[in-house]
User: What shape does this take?
Amino acid sequence: MTLDKSSTGRDVHRISRMASELGSRKRLPEVLADTLQEEILQLSVGDRLPTEPELAERFGVSRTVVRETARLLVQRGLVTVSPGRGMTVAEFDGRLIADQYGLLLRLSEGSFEQLLELRLVLEVEMAMFAAARRTDEHLTALREANRNLSSSIGTDTFLDADLSFHEILAQASGNPFFSLVIRPVNSFLRKVYRTSPGYPSEASHTVREHEEIADAIAAGDPSRARFACENHLRRIMRHSDLLAGDADKAARKRASG
Ligand SMILES: [Zn+2]
Assistant: This one.
């Protein structure tokens, strides 16, 4: 699929009208980036967008505006730009947004304990769905994450194995929204835990609890999975003071201005 490369009066009017309606709140490149974004979402990875002069003509804007628009689309992770090839639709995996959102969580005034409350709400139900919907591949991946976890006690890779278990759990839920929401939460956790002297609070408990969750999911028992996951997260919550490290101190500092 390709974008319509012809110059149409309709597009030219649409962009200038949208920009003037939005007044000074949104700059022209942003309006154009929003418009192109909608079209890019209909395209496939690797598809090429019209060239800079073609876009300038179609939307009745300068090439400088098109260049600025391209920069914004690159920032959003939607396209890549290579010299001579122009813009190409990038593989969009939401990593950029997850990082940004993870940062937003870190900068919020919420406490670490409150983040754990959010996890409790999300992940307990997630585990239940995973028990009902997981595939054999999910189960294999969960088991492998747990093997990595138990063999990495006391090393730097423990954290990766811990969080990757929770990411696979989200995938196993069969609902793609869980993965999208869990990723920024995990990105936040990763940053907090990496600098927290209290992490992991009780590594051997983490391993055992993860195994209990995986066993329940293997058995296809949703209520057991829910119970096992809640048990795991509530124990972590009891250690939130220790695990938070400097995260809560920083949040309090921001809140007090
Ligand atoms: Zn865990």
In short: The chain has 13 helices and two strands. The longest strand covers residues 79-82. The CA atoms of residues 12 and 61 lie 8 Å apart.
